[in-house]
Specification:
Blueprint: H1 2-22, H2 32-48, H3 52-65, H4 75-85, H5 88-96, H6 100-108, H7 117-127, H8 129-138, H9 143-156, H10 163-176, H11 183-189, E1 196-213, H12 216-219, E2 224-234, E3 237-246, E4 254-256, E5 259-261, E6 268-278, E7 281-282, E8 286-300, E9 320-336, E10 350-360, E11 374-389
Antiparallel strand pairs: 1-2, 1-11, 2-3, 3-6, 4-5, 6-8, 7-8, 8-9, 9-10, 10-11
Length: about 400
């Protein structure tokens, strides 16, 4: 009886153990991102051990894991691995079908988890780039394929730092192989280089400080005005519309008949002009051109605001208008000549400081003797100059 009881206890314990074992949850299957991450780690390990066969197997695994939602390898790191394994046939076949649509589809996918795979492959190929170029030339490729493959590795390793030279080389390839199966890709990576014409437009604005000469010097304070110019440039010629807007105060009473515009009153002083100039110096750092032309000037009391008392009627007697000759020496200091691509303008466009030394031969004195005189000025403007593209 005792033996039977012991056997029963052992049986019960065994059943409970089996039941407990069967109740353990099954291992959770890995998600696609986790599988991609694991495969990329194995691929990196194969690469670091210089095992092209093993790397090829893990690249195939990542290709199978990739779908419309997830990317296993980014196109550029996959192509660099093709260079490492010297799989030029596979590389060129894939590139020939890779266009802007394919690039966009790749970009919309969920990208692989961040790791160091790209950095390691990129570092290795940059260090061994001369060996890669030698390998391309000795590979079983025709001349077109060799020429394109050499361009492609430069693009992947970002060796194409001079955009103009790079665009010319791609255009040369396109001209030499007009029926190439790689033209879609070549055109997608060719930078747009705008060619300058012999025409440009510009604008500048800043502060003008004037100095009166003659009787007007006793009547008006030093003019500090906003100065601007809009200009069109063609073959060293400059056609300029400019203006100055300010308002020096009266420094003595101004008399017309029996009416007085009293000392210390503010004024409105405007000049607008048209002139033509010619570049006598035009280097990558500086441009100098004299200009000559004519303008119109206005001097009158300021218009009161809505909440101010209206001016006396006789103030209309102090509204002066005149026409004058003008001349200036303009100097452009080109500070930012390398930023032209940021503004989508051709090379040679710039912005920087414009210095102007000039003379306005004012003729207010014909209307009032106390305004007889002229103005010399110095202006400091900020200038934008943009060539027009062909």
């Amino acid at each position: 009886m005792k033996r039977i009881s012991i056997l029963l206890v052992f049986n019960i314990i065994s059943v409970l153990s089996i039941a407990q074992t069967d109740s353990l949850p099954a291992p959770k299957p890995l998600s696609t991102p986790e599988k991609i991450a694991d495969s990329r780690r194995e691929l990196l390990a194969s690469f670091l051990m210089n095992d092209p066969a093993g790397a090829g197997l893990w690249m195939d695994s990542l290709t199978r894991l990739e779908d419309a939602q997830f990317a296993g390898l980014i196109w550029d790191e996959r192509w660099m691995l093709y260079f490492w394994t010297e799989s030029y046939g596979t590389l060129l076949e894939e590139v020939s079908r890779f266009d802007e649509t394919q690039r966009n589809l790749q970009a919309w996918k969920i990208q692989p988890p961040k790791d160091s795979l790209f950095q390691w492959v990129d570092f290795y190929l940059n260090e061994k780039r001369f060996d890669v170029f030698t390998s391309i030339q000795s590979a079983f490729l025709n001349e077109e394929e060799k020429a394109f493959t050499a361009l492609l590795i430069e693009y992947l390793l970002r060796l194409n730092t001079n955009e103009e030279e790079w665009a010319d080389r791609l255009q040369s390839f396109e001209n030499h192989y007009p029926s190439s199966r790689f033209l879609a890709f070549v055109r997608s990576i060719k930078p747009t280089i705008l060619k300058p014409t012999n025409n440009a437009i510009g604008i500048s604005g800043g502060l003008l400080i004037g100095n009166w000469k003659g009787e007007i010097e006793r009547s008006l304070g030093t003019p500090y005005t906003f100065n601007f110019d809009l200009y069109y440039w063609t073959k060293r010629w400059n056609f300029i519309f400019d203006g100055s807007l300010g308002g020096p105060s009266l420094t003595r009473d101004l008399i017309v008949g029996n009416d007085v515009w009293p000392e210390d009153d503010p004024t409105n002083f405007f000049t607008f002009g048209l002139s033509v100039g010619y570049d006598i110096v035009n280097t990558p750092k500086i441009r100098i051109f004299p200009s000559i032309g004519g303008g119109i000037g206005f001097l009158k009391p300021p218009t009161p605001g809505e909440d101010e008392d209206p001016l006396p009627d006789y103030y209309s007697n102090f509204e002066f208008t005149e026409f004058h000759l003008a001349a200036a020496i303009n100097t452009d200091i080109k500070l930012f000549t390398k930023n032209y691509q940021d503004w989508n303008t051709p090379k040679g466009s710039y912005h920087g400081v414009r210095l102007k030394f000039g003379w306005n031969g004012l003729n207010f004195g014909k209307q009032n003797a106390d305004l007889m005189g002229e103005m010399f000025f110095f202006a400091v403007n900020y200038n934008f100059f943009a060539y027009l593209a062909k």
